[in-house]
Amino acid sequence: MNNVIVAPSILSADFANLQKDIMAVEQYGADWIHVDVMDGHFVPNITIGAPVVKSIRPVTNLPLDVHLMIDNPEKYIESFATAGADFLTFHYEAAPDRVKEIISMIKSFGVRAGISIKPKTLPDVIFPYLADLDLVLVMTVEPGFGGQEFMYDCAQKIPQIREKAGQSLIIQVDGGINKETAKICTDFGANCLVAGNYIYKSDNIQAAIRSLRG
Ligand code: DX5
Ligand code: ZN
Fold this sequence. Notes:
Number of strands: 8
Shape: globular
CATH topology: TIM Barrel
Bound molecules: D-xylitol-5-phosphate, zinc ion
Largest sheet: 8 strands, parallel
Strand order of the largest sheet: 1-8-7-6-5-4-3-2
CATH architecture: Alpha-Beta Barrel
Distance between the termini: 10 Å
Number of domains: 1
């Protein structure tokens, strides 16, 4: 598939040098900046919140792709939207009975809406909402930490979603993405790749980003 979007995850960047690490991936061809928000409840880890999104907004021209791994996402959408998020992706598992409302809320702020499914969640649960969504994020690890191993079974959900959604939906994958697993996912129909460790722990960021494009 052409025009693969590469979204480095700043979870693997140096938090004391976020501006520098964001500018580095922008300079070397990243398309979006992926921001992992974790609350210590939905996932067993705490990362960053809306004030950090607000601070990084002026340092890059790239879209900020904010991945909310939090309970009660509806309580925080306004603050992330006004902080400058361009995409807000919440987890189906965090609000299975409020999906439609949350998508509408995200769009009411002029932000593009995404939904994510964890490894054990079947893709069928999001089929009713595909027409309302800009993006579906298929997790290829259990959310919570960078640097985990890619789960092939999760990637097998991609063709099912692509078949139902058509070509305009962005299908994103996140977790354990490297040169090899990126190819598996794009062959399956994904067109947006999140990568943390593969990009930020590499000694050649430019080559790492380029290799993801195949
Ligand atoms: C995991 C996060 C990912 C993480 C990916 O819960 O959603 O975005 O940063 O890290 P890597 O690419 O190292 O698996
Ligand atoms: Zn993520």
